[in-house]
Known about the structure:
Shape: globular
Order of helices and strands: HHHHHEEHEEHEEHEEEEHHEEEEEH
Strand content: 25-35%
Helix content: 25-40%
Low-confidence stretches: 50-60, 63-67, 69-113
Strand order of the largest sheet: 4-5-8-9-15-14-13-12
Number of helices: 11
Largest sheet: 8 strands, antiparallel
Amino acid sequence: xxxxxxxxxxxxxxxxxxxxxxxxxxxxxxxxxxxxxxxxxxxxxxxxxxxxxxxxxxxxxxxxxxxxxxxxxxxxxxxxxxxxxxxxxxxxxxxxxxxxxxxxxxxxxxxxxxxxxxxxxxxxxxxxxxxxxxxxxxxxxxxxxxxxxxxxxxxxxxxxxxxxxxxxxxxxxxxxxxxxxxxxxxxxxxxxxxxxxxxxxxxxxxxxxxxxxxxxxxxxxxxxxxxxxxxxxxxxxxxxxxxxxxxxxxxxxxxxxxxxxxxxxxxxxxxxxxxxxxxxxxxxxxxxxxxxxxxxxxxxxxxxxxxxxxxxxxxxxxxxxxxxxxxxxxxxxxxxxxxxxxxxxxxxxxxxxxxxxx
Length: 358
């Protein structure tokens, strides 16, 4: 019999009841699997302790504790797992690529001195990124000013009724919990966020000069023009595993939309796609998206996950699967609302949950 995947071994820690009996019997008698399971348990303990926030939602503080606690190199005898270089390289560009995705994937025209909606999420598409892409990707502050407004105020609520009242969203109802997932979820609500990017020709020229390039003058009216991204509110239900990490997460949020002021939106998009710093393969993928301002790119680290599509109640969903089998997610959009089902389950189980949501 072949060895169970690392995802199956991880599931033995999180929800052992969900692991088939043949796999559990194999692990009990296999020294190689037992050694890997022990290493997986140590990693889980490390992550759980580092991300513990004493009842708060301070994810950034937890992330700092996690990265500070990671070793500088993995012992030679152990499989590769979380490496500090990859973790730090992913976290900073991740927010930047989401911002780039909305700014660069939308299209439309804007009336001078007024805000006009130019992007509304109607579908999502994977944006494949290598580790080098993530490290090389600049954030928007290299090309202008970014102002964040709104208060996420992520906090727990006692029940779904309260979550619906505070968020204005229909809270998804899970009809049947997958095998190995039990109990009541923790329910959290977050508010609306807004980010405004104002293009600066001077700052962009400085960034180009630092990269050893000279840019042509920006299109008329682009300097000082702005794009505003709005997303949320949202709600998430989390079923914990025995390790304390999520076994199942069901989330829903008002999908991102974007507004432009000053110049046609495609002018902003085309100009930013030509700037230094954005990896060419990323720019090429963004150029391939439909130009109707309706496709939201979802960053997918190519070396960590694969993507595919599936139908969820008539909507095309993106299915993300970790290459190690430890995590998966299903994400789709319907009527301006994005829904995600994720966890340490296999994709078929998550799709079953997604299709049965009430």
